[in-house]
């Protein structure tokens, strides 16, 4: 049986009690570059989102799970997006909210657990990630986990007055 857990973290579905975490994460302008967000979210909009988070992945083409630590605190989110069951592929995104929780292996473990789920339960052939060229920490993690850089998207993201390159990474089911 597949468990959505590792040694340090486990993944779980979003709950109504995650509203405050989601509100602070989505409205932190430091994260907007990664998410493509340009406007803040109200609690009412996020409550509606949480009320609909149970919808089937085959209908909404995405899945968002909380990353929880051993103390059962939500420390981040992991997303499967652009779910394409016909071509057996999807994108993967991850964020660890607090700087203090980064570089401790939580993100790497969440990616490993999530990829195992994507390959064994969703029967995906590949998972891809889009990573800013300047995000060297994420690049190291994804490469360590077997993702391969397959393309460079030049001037792909406009942020803080300049264009930034984004690298496309892929991992195939072994």
From TrEMBL:
<dbReference type="Pfam" id="PF13302">
    <property type="entry name" value="Acetyltransf_3"/>
</dbReference>
<feature type="domain" description="N-acetyltransferase">
    <location>
        <begin position="9"/>
        <end position="174"/>
    </location>
</feature>
<dbReference type="InterPro" id="IPR016181">
    <property type="entry name" value="Acyl_CoA_acyltransferase"/>
</dbReference>
<keyword id="KW-0808">Transferase</keyword>
<protein>
    <submittedName>
        <fullName>GNAT family protein</fullName>
        <ecNumber>2.-.-.-</ecNumber>
    </submittedName>
</protein>
<dbReference type="GO" id="GO:0016740">
    <property type="term" value="F:transferase activity"/>
</dbReference>
<dbReference type="InterPro" id="IPR000182">
    <property type="entry name" value="GNAT_dom"/>
</dbReference>
């Amino acid at each position: 049986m597949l468990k959505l857990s590792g040694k340090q973290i486990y993944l779980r579905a979003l709950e109504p009690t995650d509203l405050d975490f989601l509100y602070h994460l989505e409205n932190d302008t430091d994260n907007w570059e990664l998410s493509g967000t340009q406007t803040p979210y109200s609690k009412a909009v996020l409550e509606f989102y949480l009320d609909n988070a149970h919808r089937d992945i085959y209908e909404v083409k995405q899945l968002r799970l909380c990353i929880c630590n051993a103390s059962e605190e939500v420390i981040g989110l992991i997303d499967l997006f652009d779910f394409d069951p016909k071509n057996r592929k999807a994108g993967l995104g991850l964020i660890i909210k607090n700087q203090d929780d980064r570089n401790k292996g939580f993100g790497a473990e969440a990616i490993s657990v999530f990829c195992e789920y994507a390959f064994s339960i969703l029967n995906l052939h590949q998972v891809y990630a889009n990573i800013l060229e300047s995000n060297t920490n994420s690049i190291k993690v994804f490469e360590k986990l077997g993702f391969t850089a397959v393309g460079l998207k030049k001037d792909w993201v406009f942020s803080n007055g300049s264009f930034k390159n984004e690298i496309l990474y892929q991992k195939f089911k072994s």
